[in-house]
Amino acid sequence: MVDATHGHDAHAAEFPDAELYHPRSWWTKYVFSQDAKVIAIQYASTALAIGFVALALSWVMRMQLAFPGFLEFVDANAYYQAITVHGMVMVIYLITALFLGGFGNYLIPLMLGARDMVFPYVNMLSYWTYLLAVLVLVASFFAPGGPTGAGWTLYPPQAILSNTPGQQAGIILMLVSLILFVIGFTMGGLNYIVTVLQARARGMTLMRMPLTIWGIFIATVMAMLAFPALFVACVMMLFDRLLGTSFFMPALVEMGEHLSYGGGSPILFQHLFWFFGHPEVYIVALPAFGIVSDLISTHARKNIFGYRMMVWALVIIGALSFVVWAHHMYVSGMNPWFGFFFATTTLIIAVPTAIKVYNWVLTLWRGDIHFTLPMLFALGFIVTFVNGGLTGLFLGNVVVDVPLSDTMFVVAHFHMVMGVAPILVIFGAIYHWYPKVTGRMLDQTLGLIHFWITFVGAYLIFFPMHYLGIMGVPRRYFESQDISFLPPSAHDLNVFITVCALIVGAAQMVFVFNLIWSIRHGKPAGGNPWRATTLEWQTPETPPAHGNFGRELPVVYRWAYDYSVPGAAEDFIPQNQPGGAPPHKEGSE
Amino acid sequence: MVVAVVFVLIVVGSVVFHFLSPWWWTPIASNWGFIDNTILITFWITGAVFAAVVLFAAYCLWQFRHRPGHKADYEPENKKLENWLMGLTAVGVVAMLTPGLFVWSEFINVPAHASEAEVMGQQWQWAYRLPGADGKLGRTDTRLVGSDNPYGIIPDDPNGGDDVLIEADYLHLPIDKPVKMLLRSTDVLHDFYVAEFRAKMDMIPGSVTYFWFTPTRTGQFEVLCAELCGTGHPYMRGGVVIDTQEDYDAWLAGQQTFAQLYAPEVTKTAELN
Q1: Is A564 strand, coil or helix?
Q2: Chain A closest CA to B34's CA: distance in Å?
Q3: pLDDT tens-digit series, residues A300-338
Q4: Whole-prediction pTM value?
Q5: Which of residues 66 through 95 in chain B touch A, CB cutoff 8 A?
């Protein structure tokens, strides 16, 4: 994949200037824009904004667990509403939207040498539908009864019954919002897939694509297959709630009163939810895998180790993630024989995942490691991801899951592996690409403060939390102090975790300040401050103008990882730089 | 470079925390020591991998940090190394999965001589039922649940009349006798969870789920609900008391059956339905 294609024929003629429609008014340029870069910024800003709501909610729940009664407005209802909205926002409206809608939109056309997404208008609609989904979710805070408190998994029958907060309007708005999200995401996702398959620059073969694009691409394919399951589950539950159908509702007696439901299956919902929900874990993980590969390679000035293996690992993980969903349901009461199958598939997925970890670390081996901010976050990702991935081997191994399921061990595990780890990558990616987006660097000192507090703090929050779960503290407990078998010191641990959480949360304000302050006051970055090989750093203008590459689209001659090539003048060779195949390793000694 | 030091501190700190912190599982009170052992195996393997990967990364960060004149190697692939690592990982996975699946097989196959006990969950309390003299539980239907038949026992079922109903916080069970817990719910999902037994299972309205265990220690153990079941979820508590056989027999003799408690009203409900 490192050989060069000698295609020097005039490429520009294929894309005369007239073919690009340039926006003329302020509205079509900055608001109803069809430029993927603007849409990316819109997606990212919206996701970060709603993410801060989720952060505030996490403070609410941590305060309750450590200092019950301190926040007087937090009763059991408010607590369950907080955990539900926190979870849903973080998983879907923040991380998924930011990786795919944000980074996907910005990076796919730029890294592949395309002028834009292939369906710009649909791409614009994707963002506005997403924004509507967010607004519907936010509206539930102001609806009678508030947002739903059913837990982010929304398990029926409880989710639509009256002893769960938000039964009046909150659950309806939640389901409608998810339905809108899936519609919006589908419009974006079609764009990402078709653009990757059809709009790559000349010479950009699939096996020359940067791993960032591979990660986003596979994640999007998965999302297109997984989100429909969530969509139908939401529609069916909406019917159960509004029209009195019984898809998920068996005959039941609520507080002594017979309800008119009957014949439905609560566990059917769980299968649909996790058929979406497990791929969803990898939908947020694969873009992170891809991006972190590029961050490590660029800042260690060394090619990613085992590129082909990295690509195939992404593909295999993506495929396997569709046959592991019921490992979330080992104690759900499903047929226990499923356990054998799902435990086996789940542990098999550890092998391609482990290969990715080895290859990241082996990329550091004999590198020339620059401890830049993106690199620090990427390194933070390795530690938290390895930690969270390994605890997944406890929960995936069916019988080990039995005592640990539904305890704080699970909470600690998934926060480490799909909360902290991908978010560290998001931060690293923002520090990495911000100079391209704005033309200025983010402030180094503020960035270091942000990194160290976030990384060390998050580890201190979630590592000890596993041990609360091993002791047997169930998750989703508004209060747990009176549990008979807990030593009083368990509460001290909760206090410690809360203090860390407050500090880590506060450090995010430093980040936001940095984002805003550096737009005007950051050091000018130039076109390629990291001396990176990929195409987005080779644009004629920074920030890239509409159409990305000026009059002439780039032609790609090499893979994305020609760092420190022996004999080369510089320690990087851009993908669009012509030249023969790099010398083989043996020949260079 | 600071990162390399912090990486080492994270590994050392995590290991020290694991061994020295006071937070560990509650003393076991059932036969599921196998599960604890599988957890320990998993801890050893994953702990070793975690330490190895992070310490190796720390070494690389130290050794290959940027210095003037320093240049990275160019090595796109190393098939041999990659295959070795894949093989070793597969061995580690098999070492965890194999005992796991054997114990799971134990967990789901109930011994033939196990007795039965039913737990019924409803927002937000537990109720229990034992099969009575005939050793069989009467069949139930949620649609029959009412104040005159709180368990929804089908009145025509001859096995139901002698069922022992325990509408109290505590279920008693005899020590060293395997018992199959039959779990059901009349409203939403619940989960019958006793930390000391190491077992739990969701309860689903409309279905009966189960797990089995053998109590190995007398005493009183708290039952928690482990599946979110509405705002009262954390307060849904109950208890299991493990007795010696004599104590158990004495307790059982003091309990009442379905027929004794509700028989007169049951006939009426049956007619209504």
Answers
A1: coil
A2: 9
A3: 999 999 999 999 999 999 999 999 999 999 999 999 999
A4: 0.94
A5: 66, 70-78, 81-82, 85-86, 89-90, 93
